[in-house]
Design goal:
Layout lengths: L6 E2 L17 H7 L12 E4 L6 H7 L4 E2 L11 E7 L3 E10 L4 E9 L8 H15 L2 E8 L3 E8 L9 E8 L4 E9 L4 H13 L1 E4 L22 E9 L9 E8 L2 H5 L3 E7 L5 E9 L5 E2 L7 E4 L8 E7 L5 E6 L4 E5 L2 E11 L2 E9 L6 E8 L2 E8 L6 E5 L10 E7 L4 E7 L4
Parallel strand pairs: 3-4
Antiparallel strand pairs: 1-17, 2-11, 4-5, 5-6, 6-10, 7-8, 8-9, 9-10, 12-13, 13-17, 14-15, 14-18, 15-16, 18-19, 20-21, 21-22, 22-25, 23-24, 23-26, 26-27
């Protein structure tokens, strides 16, 4: 299984099946991730986008350098054009095709929130109103959240745009807003539309800069919360069959002194394995039942795409006055098996370009017993004996090389006097 790490704001987007890189092409990194934006202050926000799910996109721009200036748009496609109109906006245009009869591309626009409507719905209403004055179109909102909005626009014989098919994603941050616009003339096929929806689904605002600038005062490795309070994530939906949307959706509850929570608003952050924390929402509150709620009084939910088997995801909320910081973790696709009293759980603890690290923990085994273990990753095999501790628990770790993961399958077997347990799981492609 390819390592996906996609996080969906929409229940209408297809499953990702991409790779781990946010932006794998070095040519795109400088122009697609704005770390300074157009704000005068030092920003902590940037845009992260994964392009790998659209092979045509990756192939087209693998060796293309960005250009700017009056002649940049006259260059042959594929081309990358950067336009700086600060303090109004910055725009990067990725032109896949531009043959006259067929055009396809992606615009990424970075603006200062001070110059935009206060809400994403307000942005949509204003944009639609202005657009309808000159070009009638069919509009459909695919997903709307507090800080993001995904919509589709199809023009039919418009004098300025022709029959253009567009998919738009609007992202609102604390210091930067982003608009991603994927367009094609003539209309997109279902396959092309699916690729663009997946790419837009991967787009999110995350913290950037030096280690100091992304420090939000949380020890992610310890996962400790403010004493007396607890954040819990509950799975509320898991995708079935060919259903579109995120693979797993979580809701959240907060426990602790009601009086201390009553007047607090929270920001939401997410930390993936091997990545910096990402900002995902603000103005969240806790209702009388302890549910984490958005400002429109709907439950705060987050949808996750196809993460690697055993890959943990950390989530945190922080009150506006920094007095309450709560952390929880989920493993969307756990690696575990039970036989009789024995249980084995596997988890990814390291995931870098140099390879993954897996930790396996056994529970319910006879104290003092020696168990035989075999770990397999492709042609890489490790066999050993491990002594069970007095509480019936043992643990061990393995670090296979990336080259050993080519078949995409790993297994771990333990044999003891009372049971035999085998785990089989999909490994990430790095």
């Amino acid at each position: 299984m390819t390592r996906n790490r996609a996080i969906y704001q929409s229940h209408d987007m297809p499953t990702r099946a991409g790779t781990s890189s946010k932006i794998a092409l070095s040519a795109l990194l400088a122009v697609a991730s704005f770390s300074a934006g157009v704000s005068a202050q030092q920003t902590k926000e940037g845009l992260a986008v994964s392009f790998q799910d659209y092979p045509k996109f990756v192939e087209a721009f693998a060796n293309v350098q960005a250009s700017s200036g009056p002649d940049a748009h006259a260059q042959a496609a594929p081309r990358i054009v950067f336009e700086d109109k600060s303090p109004v906006y910055q725009k990067t245009s990725f032109v896949l095709e531009d043959s006259g009869a067929v055009s396809e591309g992606l615009d990424i626009i970075n603006t200062d929130p001070a110059n935009d409507p206060s809400t994403v719905s307000g942005w949509y209403s204003e944009y639609r109103g202005v657009s309808e004055e000159t070009c009638k179109s069919d509009w459909q909102v695919l997903d709307e959240r507090e800080d993001s909005l995904l919509f589709e626009r199809i023009t039919r014989g418009c004098p300025s745009l022709g029959s253009e098919h567009g998919l738009y994603k609007v992202l609102y941050g604390e210091q930067n807003n982003y608009v991603l616009i994927a367009t094609r003339t003539p209309a997109m096929s279902q396959e092309t539309r699916s690729h663009w929806l997946t790419l837009l689904g991967s787009a999110r605002i995350e913290l950037r800069g030096s280690p100091a600038s992304v420090d939000i005062g949380i020890d992610w490795s310890a996962g400790e919360s403010t004493p007396g309070f607890e954040l819990a994530a509950t799975e509320i939906h898991r995708k079935q069959g060919q259903e579109e949307g995120p693979d797993v959706v979580y809701g959240f509850s907060v426990s602790g002194p009601r009086k201390a929570l009553k007047q607090k608003t929270f920001s939401f952050f997410l930390k993936e394995l091997g990545r910096e924390p990402a900002f995902f929402g603000r103005n969240l509150t806790v209702n009388r039942s302890g549910e984490l709620m958005k400002s429109n009084n709907e439950p705060a939910e987050i949808g996750l795409g196809r993460f690697a088997d055993g890959e943990p995801v950390m989530m945190a909320i922080i009150s506006g006055d920094d007095s309450i910081k709560l952390v929880t973790r989920v493993v969307p696709f756990p690696i575990q098996a039970d036989t009789g009293p024995c249980r084995i759980t596997g988890e990814l603890v390291v995931l870098t370009e140099n390879g993954p690290g897996y930790a396996f923990v056994g529970q319910g085994f006879a104290p003092g017993d020696e168990v035989s273990t075999i770990a397999r990753f492709g042609d890489w095999v490790a066999e050993g004996m491990v002594e069970v501790e007095s509480n019936g628990v043992y643990g061990e770790m393995f670090f296979p090389d990336p080259g050993d993961l080519v078949d995409g399958v790993g297994s771990y077997t333990v044999v003891s006097g009372q049971c035999t347990v085998t785990l089989t799981f999909e490994t990430p492609v790095l």
